[in-house]
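Appendix B. Raw example, untouched.
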Amino acid sequence: MNSISLDAVAALTGMGRSTLWRKAADGVLAKGDKDARGRATLALSDVLGLICDSTGVPFSDDDVAVLLQADAGDAEAQADIGALLYVHAGGGREAALYWLRAAAEQGSAEAMQWLGTAHAAGGTERDEQLAVMWIAKAAALGHPIAKRQLEGLLQGAKPMN
């Protein structure tokens, strides 16, 4: 049985951990074994519909495989899921930021660039300082899009003569 951490389900659905755990205690959702990181898990088959409904993203089999890698801690997979949610989930921006932050904390330049873009665009969290910080970090790591974004920001900040 594939399972996913309670924390990931909470982030993806917007439901509280206690609500999800209560549903598991009531038998509505099947509990999984603790994962390799010692976290409580739920049966993916029981929560996938909730995740798709909450994010508005119909996860393909390939997306589910990447989601499981992301939940296991793979930074590249976390960045991929974060980008997928950011682009395709009108209401799933918080879920996207959850995965992008997790990947950025592990040094993913791709996630940093997406976080910078998300903070610049607003929606759930508009913060120009965070936007510049994340874009600059991604650029420093060689991310080509972030480099162009940073050049544009710096050109826009030059005083006019």
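End of appendix B.
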